[in-house]
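so im writing up the methods section and need the Phosphatase NudJ record in one place, dumping it here so i stop losing it
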Amino acid sequence: MDTRWKPSVTVAAIIERDGRYLLVEEHTPEGLRLNNPAGHLDPGEGPIEACAREVLEETAHDFTPTALLGVYLSRFQRAATGEDVTYLRLAFTGPLGEAVPGRALDDGIVRTLWLTLDEVRASRDRHRSPLVLRCIEDHAAGRRLPLEAIYTDPSVLGGR
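--- predicted struct ---
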């Protein structure tokens, strides 16, 4: 039996435009929640590519990460099932690109919305996790790390 602890690796995009942050409203087991465009790292991709893919799937817009905001660790227990999950999140920032014509939002995503930092803070009871606000506050504080801080060995990219 494998008892090694394996946190779920996720990526998130913190996108700001004109003082507002892009969030998605999505269906979750806990109900309708707000989240940064985010999702799981898939086999055969690096974190930077995963973040661009997740933004496209959840917002129907292109996204190019330009900086790493940070690496975050969070633990969550589902009230309904008691499932205990730990997430390791790599958060990136960059400009939102153009909408992709004809591209639908991912299943479960209800809509995208732009909120000010104060509106994000006021809606924290609807956040999917405490990392939603933490990542946005780190962005607002000016935290930026070079993308070169993330290295993906080529052996990973062939692992599909």
